[in-house]
Specification:
- The protein is an alpha/beta fold and about 500 residues long.
- A hairpin with a 7-residue loop joins strand 14 and strand 15.
- It contains 19 helices and 21 strands.
- The radius of gyration is 24 Å and the shape is globular.
- Helix 16 packs across helix 19.
- The longest helix is centred in the C-terminal third of the chain and has 25 residues.
- The two termini are about 35 Å apart.
- Helices cover about 40% and strands about 15% of the residues.
- The structure holds adenosine-5'-diphosphate.
- The site of adenosine-5'-diphosphate has 11 residues, from helix 14.
- Its EC number is 2.7.1.17.
- Mediates 1-deoxy-D-xylulose (DX) phosphorylation in the cytoplasm prior to the translocation of 1-deoxy-D-xylulose 5-phosphate into plastids. Can also phosphorylate D-xylulose (Xyl). Uses preferentially ATP as cosubstrate.
- It catalyses: D-xylulose + ATP = D-xylulose 5-phosphate + ADP + H(+).
- GO terms for molecular function: ATP binding; D-xylulokinase activity.
- It is an enzyme of class 2 (transferase).
């Protein structure tokens, strides 16, 4: 399917009369975690494709399994447990690779293939990620896995940016050889293969820059580039990603090398109950209307008089809690000092407080967990995207809670935009003969290009930001107790 997709897209571009000869560099975005298993002997097929024929028919037999594991996988719990145990526990694995073991990560999936389909494993000469697979098709030889997408495998030491021997051993024998080498995301994977030069008239000097995963490419496409930049995607689920100099992996959340820099890190937090919970509370308390929802947000005071809520309509990832709503009121609530105040659990809030408790709760959790991962407080700026970023009241709550300006980008294509930017970045680094910051390409030009973002809410008052910090501390204490009582380990 992925090979056919490349055939199709190039055929369509050809029909649209695109002049392929003008393209200086190509990169791309592949779904994170997915992997492809090249059959023994396939590198020869890959390097000698006939330009008269589509790729799909020539590569039909190049794979040791036709079923690629992808992110929507929950079959590898046993393998996750075994790998964590072998390296000294979940936290230890997270310290090395940036994440504890996850069912969707490639390492546990490879171990499962080794355990359940030994023939497939033995018959595999190279394992590619979706990203490096596509780069391999374009260069006509096996491309490296890039450092950022490589961190979504539970196999790479994110500090050294090399395969971790101990984890490779805990995953499957002979794995290093099958994975090949790693490379920075801005590196040249190779020149475009003669197949594409002959068939589509690409320039033979066109560079293929390492492809990377979809989330890292979104970070690049939103023009996050230096420590303190943070993006909040308010979709069906919420995702937060930012850039930090520090490296503080923990049990929840992920740390990857920054795809547009060689030193810093990309932190990513995933919440399942984003718009899912917002819509539920809107329907229950606000007449199914965003207008009423917003009126309630405007009617109620910041800090909500010490009312804190936890709303999990579905199993939550961060924190790992089951379905359930939990509401608390801080006794003797005093905005200046919360040390004394104990919380008291209550059954319900009035509808306006419920709406504020939900929005503040979601945002305080994002602030607490991103600071725990080393994001500075306040961040330099926040870029908000996703469906709910159309809501100005939610955006001004973000500015009040985080204490920085909030910008919006109404573009549905930040991952592919990021891949295009990274192609140009890789080309530029190659031309200069050393790494140059990606921001050189667009600094001072943002306003006149499609990279433009709009200032949607200005930084909140600093006193309020400090008060929110106290409320956040209290929330974290309650959250930790909930995880101890109800959490999944
Ligand atoms: P996905 O993650 O599925 O791509 P989107 O980023 O398109 O989702 O976001 C869709 C969500 O945006 C919907 O679930 C809806 O609840 C939410 N949404 C749309 N408009 C608003 C609004 N004005 N206020 C809050 N949420 C909104």
């Amino acid at each position: 399917m992925w090979v056919e997709a490349l055939d199709l897209i190039l055929q369509r571009l050809q029909k649209s009369k695109l002049d392929f000869g003008k393209i200086a560099a190509v990169s791309g975005s592949g779904q994170q975690h997915g992997s492809v298993y090249w059959k023994n002997g396939s590198s020869k097929i890959l390097s000698s494709c006939d330009p008269m024929k589509p790729l799909m028919e020539q590569l039909f037999d190049a794979f040791s399994t036709k079923e690629s594991p992808v992110w929507m996988d929950s079959s590898t719990t046993e393998q996750c447990k075994a790998i964590e145990k072998a390296v000294g526990g979940a936290l230890e694995l997270s310290k090395i690779t940036g994440s504890r073991a996850y069912e969707r990560f490639t390492g546990p999936q490879i171990r499962r293939i080794f355990e359940k389909q030994l023939d497939v494993y033995r018959n595999t000469e190279r394992i590619s990620l979706v990203s490096s697979f596509m780069a391999s098709l374009l260069t006509g030889s096996y491309a490296c896995i890039d450092h950022t997408d490589g961190a979504g495998m539970n196999l790479m030491d994110i500090k050294d940016r090399s395969w971790s021997k101990i984890i490779l051993e805990a995953t499957a024998p002979g794995l290093e050889e099958k994975l090949g080498k790693l490379a920075p995301a801005h590196a040249v994977a190779g020149l475009i293969s003669p197949y594409f030069v002959d068939r589509y008239h690409f320039n033979k000097d066109c560079l293929i820059i390492q492809w990377s995963g979809d989330n890292p490419n979104s970070l690049a496409g939103l023009t996050l580039n230096s420590p303190g930049d943070l993006a909040i995607s308010l979709g069906t689920s919420d995702t937060v990603f930012g850039i930090t100099n520090e490296h503080k992996p923990s049990l929840e959340g992920h740390v990857f090398p920054n795809p547009v820099d060689t030193n810093s890190y990309m932190v990513m937090l995933c919440y399942k109950n984003g718009s899912l919970a917002r819509e539920d509370i809107r329907n229950q308390c606000a007449d199914k209307s965003w207008e009423v929802f917003n009126k309630f947000l405007q009617q109620t005071q910041p800090l909500n008089g010490g009312k804190l809520g936890f709303y999990y309509k579905d199993h939550e990832i961060l924190p790992p809690l089951p379905v359930g709503f939990h509401r608390y009121v801080l006794e003797n609530f005093n905005e200046e000092s919360l040390d004394e105040g104990r919380e008291c659990e209550v059954k319900e809030f009035d509808p306006p407080s419920e709406v504020r408790a939900l929005v503040e709760g979601q945002l305080l959790s994002m602030r607490a967990h991103s600071e725990r991962f080393g994001m500075p407080s306040p961040p330099k700026r926040i870029i908000a995207t996703g469906g709910a970023s159309a809501n100005d009241c939610i955006l001004s709550s973000i500015a009040s809670i985080f204490g920085c300006n909030v910008y919006t980008v109404q573009r549905p294509d930040s991952a592919s935009m990021g891949a295009a930017l990274r192609a140009a970045h890789g080309w530029l680094c190659n031309k200069k003969g050393n790494f140059v910051p990606i921001s050189c390409m667009y600094m001072d030009k943002m306003e006149t290009t499609s990279l433009k973002c709009k200032l949607a809410a200005t930084a909140g008052d600093q006193e309020l930001v400090s008060k929110y910090a106290l409320l956040m501390k209290k929330r974290v204490e309650i959250e930790n107790r909930l995880v101890q009582k109800l959490g999944r380990l």
